[in-house]
Amino acid sequence: MLYDSLFKTKKKKLAVLIDPDKQNLEKLAFFSEKSQKDGADFFLVGGSLVSTGLDNTIEIIKENSDLPVILFPGSILQISDKADGILLLSLISGRNPDLLIGNHVIAAPILQKSSLEVISTGYMLIDGGNKTSVEYMSNTKPIPADKTDIAVATAIAGEFLGTKLIYLEAGSGAKNHVDINLVKEVKKSIGVPLIVGGGLSNYKIVENICKAGADIIVTGTAFEKNDNLVKLFADKIHSL
Ligand code: 1GP
Fold first, then answer.
1. Whether pTM exceeds 0.70
2. Labelling 230: which of 31, 42, 142, 215 has CA 20 to 30 A away?
């Protein structure tokens, strides 16, 4: 079970986010192999708007590494049986019914027939100081960065509704990562593992976010700019 081995463990983990549109295939082959060598724990594949087929991307990752691949879908078009699992995202910070239940209904029969492990995730968009693709594409408002009480209440509600993970998302390329204090307060209030992503650009930030309580760190943009950061991030995360 991916959920038990990746999320339900005491050890903090690094997920490398692959946006299929932002990788050329040759680079992806090299990067997948290097990420595993450098200590990444698993891959997430997806994006707010993806026009490249996921199958090919996942095949290349799998040909070049043994790490699990989990879908991180920006839409119901981003389902592929080639992956090992899928984060079934409910955008609980927003009030868009399609992203709370509508898309889940459309996807459910397909997911049930697939071999994917479905991992229910309470996905919370936190204001990162700039308008990100996820905010625009989801047609939802993020929780203001300083409204810790709203974030805490939302995370508790997510857990009560049965989500097995809470994901605090500042958005890809966010100007500001999720506030350290907000991470701390959310972590204190929930019993399920906590994922944090968006705008995590150096290992010092990653260290602080982990110390505040993140169990899983997700990074995409920083690794697209400098793939040597995978090792720095992974070493830091695993040392905590
Ligand atoms: C995953 O969207 C993030 O939660 C990834 O953000 O691209 O800024 O690392 P970055």
1. yes
2. 142
pLDDT digits (tens, 9 = 90+) for 92-147: 999 999 999 999 999 999 999 999 999 999 999 999 999 999 999 999 999 999 99
> Which residue from 136, 152, 138 is spatially nearest to 94, judged by alpha carbons?
138
Question: What are residue 204's phi and psi, to 5 degrees?
Answer: -65, -45
The domain that holds 94 is classified in CATH as 3.20.20.390
Using the mean position of ligand 1's atoms as its centre, give its distance from the Cα of residue 191 in Å: 24
Domain holding 123, by residue range, is 2-8+81-238
210 Cα–ligand 1 center, Å: 15
Which neighbouring-strand residues pair with 216? 13, 195
Question: Per residue in 15-27, pLDDT tens?
Answer: 999 999 988 888 9
* Domain presence at residue 143: yes
User: Nearest C-alpha to atom 4 of ligand 1 is from which residue?
Assistant: 197
